[in-house]
Here is the input.
Amino acid sequence: MLATILALPLSIFVMAAPQQRGQQTIVRDSTPADSAARNAPRRLPVTASVLATAFRDAATRDLFNRARKARLAQDSSLNSYDSKVRQRLSVYVGIGKLGRDRLVYRHENAARVQWERNAGVRIEVTGARVAIPVIGSAKEEREAVQDGVTEDTKSPIPYFPGSENLWIGDLAAPAEVNDRSLVNPIAFGSEAYYTYATGDSVSFRLPDGRTIQLMEMTVRPRTVKPNLAVGSLWFAIATGQLVRAAYRLAVPAPMRISVTDGDSTTVAGRRIAAVIGAVFSPLTAQLSSVVIEYGLYEGRFWLPRSQSVEGVAQVLMGRVPVRMDNTFNYASVNRPLNLTVVKVDTTITDQRPGLGRMPQGLDSAARRKWRDSTRAVYNAAAKARADSVKAGMHTGSMRQCDTSATRTIIQYRSEARIPVSMTIPCDVDKLMSSPDLPASIFDPGEEIFGSAEAKQLAGAALSMAAQAPLSLGDLPGPRVQVGPSMSRYNRVEGFSTGLLLDQQLGGGYSATAIGRFGFSDHVPNVELSVARTNLSKTIRLNGYNRLVSASDWGSPLTFSSSVSTFLFGRDEGFYYRATGAELLWTTERGARLEWRAFAERQRSALQSTTFSLGANFVPNIEAAAGSFAGGSVRLLHSRGLDPRGFRTFTDLRLEGAGGDSSYGRAAIDVTLSHGLFRNAEAALTLSGGSTVGDVPMQRRWFLGGTQTIRGQTADSAQSGNAFWMSRLELGRSTTGIRLSLFGDVGWTGDRDEWRDVGRPLRGVGVGFAALDGLIRLDVAHGLYPRKQTRVNFYLGAEF
Here is the structure.
């Protein structure tokens, strides 16, 4: 299941990154023949009225026409290049809105790529390695290198005649728009989808005295759709050649999970697929930035220098950011290489079997039977064809290693049928230790991949002002969220579930409505908000009547926490109700920062149920009723990706409010971890906080439970207006599983008595963490004040 979830965000790159193919996640209910017909290219007509509104002025139209002509023109004077290509793909997973993003997969490769006109492309793979930190198995990583290095998706090709310079869709540039995929803003027909305006301009002088002038053209979609882009394109004014591009999707793209395996043609298989799709859908994916830079070589040839794409998928409580970077360095451009012509064996065909169309006049049962049998035939043929191709590629190429130090795979690449000969060393260790790769796979690698520069370019070009137009007419359908992600269980509401509706409005704006009902307290919860985002930062105005957790740690009001609450009676949240309004400003990348200004009425939330399959719930707190207005700041920052290296995770919280009482509170948590010897690791958490003024009960600190002092029960008696806490763990990891011994100690009470703490809370135990703490099971024993043994299962542990 983890592998399936990790593969989902890669579908983001199906539209925008031709070098990295992912799994399709859109459910298809038609036959292959019907699907092929439905997926035929289509585009809106470009009418006179469309052309009249497409360009801000004549200068913009002229630049656009030069850019379109240059996009499909083949410079016959460019005959060859010899380049060094590097690629890095990184996939992260985080639990919850504010959880740490863990690196779960990273692939790096390096290659020498040569192209010569009328000869084809020759790729010599010089380096490749894989890191799967959440598993930590050198064997698995080595096998991933051996299996993955033969895939043509791992070796980008900088340029060939007719290549797509905007890095959209297939390697080859299609002449016309196809709005069934991401709409290219320069292709024929794009005027029906975008408007254009010139922006800034710059110029620079070449050593030979010539001056190159560049002009920016901003691209804005006419409507709010997830297959349209918003961004900034820079062109050489004289030639129309693309020099730089930074763009993103206009709005996030909703997706559904498709499960296709050997049993998907049976009724049971379809039911399983439907259940999985219902649990994990809707998946929201967003392409937050694509940055492309070109360099001028030999004074006339613009060739790609770097490419970067970044996106994130959201499924249930999981967040899956993905980033890919390509860089290109040229040893020579337009010098004779004398490459031999690449000849591809075409005896293996990839043509689909003709399955025909569904006969007319069938009833529903007959249509279902025909569809199932057709799918079975098609799936069997497709599997057999894929197996034969794979066997031919892998078995044939591996046999070459019996007599040679390298193996060669020759095949066509992309729909353009580019002949490619790829040579790979048989020695995997040589690939993994290549000097063409960074010293460590966990290095930032900014000097090689230029990721910092790409982020700066995206930040400048994709500001909050770079948006699709605000529109209340032609809008996509609302995103509907129900099911597990909207369900929870706690001592106040009992079982609670609800509905979320999110409507994109254009201009970066969206409107969200959340309705929720608790079946024990019978109190409705409602939230209405309007937000504006550029997928890097978000500003949200929210009005609400909701249940709030008073705890600073964990996420009691989520589905994953509710499982433990229902099964074991471990409700570790203390709750109060709040009615009011808030203004939120949050950042989505790097260090996550949240500013909040609020005005609300707070009051007690009465406990409405004691039922669970485990122990009885402890009583809820009695909140101090009152009206408060104030603000808060929260900053989360992590550093380090290697579980065996030095990593830090910092959580800083500041809050102040006035009203029926005035108070201020501040706290910080710092977690440090590092590998010791062999497979041993250690982690230390240090936390502390204090307050000023008259702090209401619901804004005190509460210790006890899985996120603070394990082995102790979260209890309102263990609360105060100041606290300190420390957690120490010593662990040993083997193939994705970490067994650790831990000890926790902490105190909470009156801030004037922090020097006289008496006997602090204490607990010890054994922890079992999978996937670097993404999944965690603890068996904890309380030492003081309660001597008890507790078993806890939760997601997103700090270690």
About this structure: Residues 2-461 form one domain. Residues 1-37, 257-265, 348-355, 385-394 have pLDDT under 50 and may be disordered. The chain is about 15% helix and 40% strand. Residues 213 and 772 are 51 Å apart (CA to CA).
